Amino acid sequence: MEEVENTTAGDISGPSTQRQARLFALLYSADEVSERNTRIYDEMLGQSPHIRQPNFTVIGTDDLQRLFGGYDREFFRGRLAEMLHEDGAHPMGFRLSRRLTSAAGQTMRWTRPIQRGGKPATEYRYEITVSTTLLYNTFQHLERRVTVGGLACRDRLEALQRIFEHELLHLAEFLGWGKSNCRAGNFHALSRRIFAHEGAYHDLVTPREQAGVAFGIVVGDMVRFEFEGKQHVGRVNRITRRATVLVEDPAGRPYSDGRRYRTIYVPLPMLTKV
Ligand SMILES: [Zn+2]
After folding, report:
1. Entry pTM
2. For residue 206, how far is its CA from the centre of ligand 1 (angstroms)?
3. Cβ pair 81, 114 in contact under 8 A
4. Of 117, 139, 175, 230, which sees the most CB atoms within 10 A?
5. Residue 106 is assigned to a structural domain of this protein
6. The domain spanning residue 260 has which CATH number?
7. What is the Å distance from ligand 1's center to 166 Cα?
8. Which domain holds residue 234?
9. Distance from Cα 100 to the centre of ligand 1, integer Å
10. How far is the CA of 104 from the centre of ligand 1 (A)?
C-alpha cells in the first residue's frame, strides 16, 4: 500500500521513530506474560456473552474488541488505542472469517491521501480478521499438543489468544513502521519482548493436516532421531517441510510448561516414533 509522508508540523499521526521507541520500550518476562495472559483469559470467560467455556463454540466480533481492550491494557499500556486515535482510526475494525483457512488471522492497513482543512493529509484504516475455521477445527478431533507462536495452547481460548497476539504485533508494526512482516527480525524482536513468543507461526489444525500427514507423524508425537552423531528423543512441536522437535535441554529456552527445550529441525523421514 502506498505510503504518504505527512510533514505537517504538530501532526502526530502516522508511523514515526517516536512510536517505534514507545513500542520497543514494552518488555515483559515470561512470568509477567503468563500472569497477564491469565487475567485476559479469566476476563473473557467472565465477561463474554458467547465464550462461556475454554473450548467455546460461539464467538462474536465483540469478543475480538474485548480481547483488544484486554491486550492493550495488559501488554501495550494503552498505546495501541492511543496511536489509533492519533491516526483517526479508532475504533478499528474486527472481523471473523470462515474462508480464511491458510492463516489463522490477518491484519490489514489502508491509507488514502485526503485533504484536511485545505492541507494534504492521510486517512488510515486498520482491521483484524480471525479465522473461525482454524479455531473450530482445533481441539475438535485431534488430541495433541497445539502450539501457536511457539507456545503450547491447552484449549481454544488460549489458541485464540495466541492468534490475536500475533495479529496485534502486525498492528503494532503497522502503527509504528507503516509496514509489517512476520518473517522479519523486527517482528520477532517485538514478539519476544512483548509476548515471549518463540516463533511466529501458528500450528492450528489446517485442512491439510486433517487430511492426514505423510510419514504418520503428527505434532505432539514423541520421536527418536540422530543429529550430529547422537541419538535424541523429543516431542514434535511443528511440522512444515521439516519437523520442529523440542528436546529437553537445561541450556535451552524456557517454555510454558516450565521446562527448557532446545529446538532441532529434522527432515520427516529421519524421525522414528517412540
Ligand atoms: Zn503474520
Report:
1. 0.69
2. 16
3. no
4. 175
5. yes
6. 2.30.30
7. 6
8. 213-273
9. 13
10. 9
